Amino acid sequence: MKRPSKIKLIAWVASILPAGWFIINYALGAYNPYPTLFLTQFAGKTAIVFLLLSLACTPLRNIFSCSSLNQPRKVFGLASFYYALAHALTFLVLDYHLKWNWLLPEFQNKPYLLLGLAALLLLLVLALTSIRSFQKRTADLWIKIHRWVYPTTLLVLIHQYFAIKGDKRTAILYLVIFGILMILRVPFIKSKVRIKREDSFQKINRWLLS
């Protein structure tokens, strides 16, 4: 079995840290008297952060001509799905106890919940098809499926924007970041922002890939 590279190990540790931080604080009673509400919000925000991090990998690789920066993409994408799943399950199970007579009016009165559900299902498809064997067997189909990550991210961000009752600056910031990451994928822009790779950066790249 191939040993994971250093940058992948760093990415896995980074993806686990928010969950560990929450569990420790929960054990210390930091979220009383509304731990469920905090977990719902925390898991949702963390899912968005990792989704944007996964989208940032390719532009950063192009800018710095550093292949190692693309390696955490899958790790961050899977982390985003796991936190999104925790976000949804907390809402459905802990908040509403899977009682559909409570849930249906919520979905009817709050359309952004349907956007969140659609985004979660798309993230599930992306997670299930991220398996390397699936990628090798269906290369062309895999590429088409994983382009869904862009509309999926937009659904997630719209869901968050309308779910927030108060200050929406964070939601707007995430939308701006997403817009910048999309612009950096435009071929003309991509060619203009590339930074010449230095020898010292090559050494860092090799170390991260090792």
TrEMBL record:
<keyword id="KW-0408">Iron</keyword>
<feature type="domain" description="Ferric oxidoreductase">
    <location>
        <begin position="44"/>
        <end position="156"/>
    </location>
</feature>
<feature type="transmembrane region" description="Helical">
    <location>
        <begin position="75"/>
        <end position="94"/>
    </location>
</feature>
<dbReference type="GO" id="GO:0016679">
    <property type="term" value="F:oxidoreductase activity, acting on diphenols and related substances as donors"/>
</dbReference>
<dbReference type="InterPro" id="IPR022837">
    <property type="entry name" value="MsrQ-like"/>
</dbReference>
<dbReference type="GO" id="GO:0010181">
    <property type="term" value="F:FMN binding"/>
</dbReference>
<dbReference type="Pfam" id="PF01794">
    <property type="entry name" value="Ferric_reduct"/>
</dbReference>
<keyword id="KW-0472">Membrane</keyword>
<keyword id="KW-0812">Transmembrane</keyword>
<dbReference type="GO" id="GO:0020037">
    <property type="term" value="F:heme binding"/>
</dbReference>
<dbReference type="InterPro" id="IPR013130">
    <property type="entry name" value="Fe3_Rdtase_TM_dom"/>
</dbReference>
<feature type="transmembrane region" description="Helical">
    <location>
        <begin position="114"/>
        <end position="135"/>
    </location>
</feature>
<keyword id="KW-0813">Transport</keyword>
<dbReference type="GO" id="GO:0005886">
    <property type="term" value="C:plasma membrane"/>
</dbReference>
<feature type="transmembrane region" description="Helical">
    <location>
        <begin position="170"/>
        <end position="188"/>
    </location>
</feature>
<protein>
    <submittedName>
        <fullName>Sulfoxide reductase heme-binding subunit YedZ</fullName>
    </submittedName>
</protein>
<feature type="transmembrane region" description="Helical">
    <location>
        <begin position="9"/>
        <end position="28"/>
    </location>
</feature>
<keyword id="KW-1133">Transmembrane helix</keyword>
<feature type="transmembrane region" description="Helical">
    <location>
        <begin position="147"/>
        <end position="164"/>
    </location>
</feature>
